[in-house]
């Protein structure tokens, strides 16, 4: 790819970013449990008021080069950088936006996203969240890494709506208002290939998945 082509893509990204909202609804009412799934960018993920406005109770940041300090309730034992609790359940999956990721990282991301929906917490002050709420999956721009992870998840969990990975990607491109000029890089093909490999692996693993681990097991 030439420098001119790269510059043209960057310009297209910048124009599209300026024109669209930081976050979009991708899928309503997951599993019939009232959980809506969103994709967004770094601005959406770092705005607690905006997240609360959309009922987001869980954030999955899948960008390795984006760290957001979500802590609003600082633990009194903090001595250096603050740690404690955020107003949302916050999960991190560090994916490179392009080559460099071992393929199982997207497979892990699928299981992380699937698992957090069914995850339950003990009744302790150190687990302050009530329920999952709506879910935001974000990366820096909300157009490649997050799109790939959510497409993989929707294809595997809602196959009647998204019978192929490409069907899920096509839906997300429209819902997230990704301009056709962005499509060659939104999402990047190397991530799509890893997602397809992950989908194939899940089909092999599913017959052997154990039930949720409970106390005493």
How many beta strands in the DSSP annotation? Answer: 7
Instruction: Give me the CATH fold name.
Output: Protein-Tyrosine Phosphatase, Chain A
What is the N-to-C succession of helices and strands? HEEHHEEEEHEHHH
Strand content: 15-25%
Q: Number of helix segments?
A: 7
Annotated CATH architecture: Alpha-Beta Complex
CATH C-level: Alpha Beta
Largest sheet: 5 strands, mixed
What is the assigned CATH homologous superfamily?
A: Protein tyrosine phosphatase superfamily
The residue-averaged pLDDT reads 91
Cross-sheet strand order for the largest sheet? 1-2-7-3-6
> Which secondary-structure class do the elements indicate?
alpha/beta
Distance between the termini: 53 Å
Cα gyration radius (Å) = 18 Å
Unreliable residue stretches:
none
Helical coverage, percent range: 25-40%
Protein name: Dual specificity protein phosphatase family protein
InterPro entries: Prot-tyrosine_phosphatase-like (IPR029021), Tyr_Pase_dom (IPR000387)
Task: Describe the protein.
This is Dual specificity protein phosphatase family protein. Residues 111-176 form the Tyrosine specific protein phosphatases domain. The protein is 38% helix and 18% strand. The strands form 2 sheets. A 5-stranded mixed sheet has the order 1-2-7-3-6. A hairpin with a 4-residue loop joins strand 1 (23-30) and strand 2 (35-40). It has a single domain (15-207), classed as Protein tyrosine phosphatase superfamily (Protein-Tyrosine Phosphatase, Chain A, Alpha-Beta Complex). Helix 4 crosses helix 5 (145-157), helix 5 (145-157) crosses helix 6 and helix 5 (145-157) packs parallel to helix 7 (189-205). The protein has 7 helices and 7 strands; from the N terminus they run αββααββββαβααα. The model has no long low-confidence stretch (mean pLDDT 91). The protein is an alpha/beta fold.
